[in-house]
Specification:
There is one protein chain. The chain has 133 residues and is α/β, with parallel strands linked by helices. The chain has one domain (6-132): Response regulator (Rossmann fold, 3-Layer(aba) Sandwich), CATH 3.40.50.2300. The protein has helices at residues 14-26, 37-47, 63-73, 95-98, 120-132, and strands at 6-10, 30-34, 51-54, 85-89, 112-115. Strands 2-1-3-4-5 form a five-stranded parallel β-sheet, with helices on both faces. It is globular and about 35 Å long. The protein starts with 5 loop residues before the first strand and ends with a helix. The model has no long low-confidence stretch (mean pLDDT 86).
């Protein structure tokens, strides 16, 4: 059994997954990938990652937010609610401007947010910090 921290990347962009996987594995993390939200949720259940790196726009323009909600607030994924989520996306709008009528956005808010291309000098320390919390 490995004592490396486990990170799940959920993103439909294969090139992004490959480069992020290489970056994280280079830092000593164990990495698993999923190419859509549904597969990501299944992988999270089976893999029990220590951290999730998640895209927003995959099969739908807001799929990443749906994954956050499923992991953090739906009873069927309740055993995963404490896993930190770093959202990384080309979408520069915050949830409040995307969903102006939503009210409380806590149920779709990730623990951290980065826009693509990621700033590695900020991203890696964030990953480390979230894994230590």
């Amino acid at each position: 059994m490995s004592d490396k921290a486990k990170i799940l990347i959920i993103d439909d962009d294969e090139d992004y997954r490959t480069s992020t996987r290489a970056l994280l594995e280079g830092e000593g993390y164990e990495v698993l990938e999923a190419d859509c939200g549904r597969k990501g949720l299944e992988a999270a259940r089976g893999y029990m990652p220590d951290l999730i790196v998640l895209d927003i726009m995959m099969e739908s323009p807001v799929e990443g937010y749906t994954v956050v909600q499923a992991l953090k607030f739906r009873n069927e994924y309740g055993d995963l609610e404490e896993i930190p989520i770093i959202m990384v996306s080309s979408v520069k709008q915050d949830p409040a401007s995307l969903f102006p009528m939503a009210g409380d956005l806590a149920m779709i808010t990730p623990d951290a947010y980065f826009t693509k291309p990621i700033d590695i000098q900020r991203f890696l320390p964030c990953v480390k910090r979230m894994l230590e919390e």
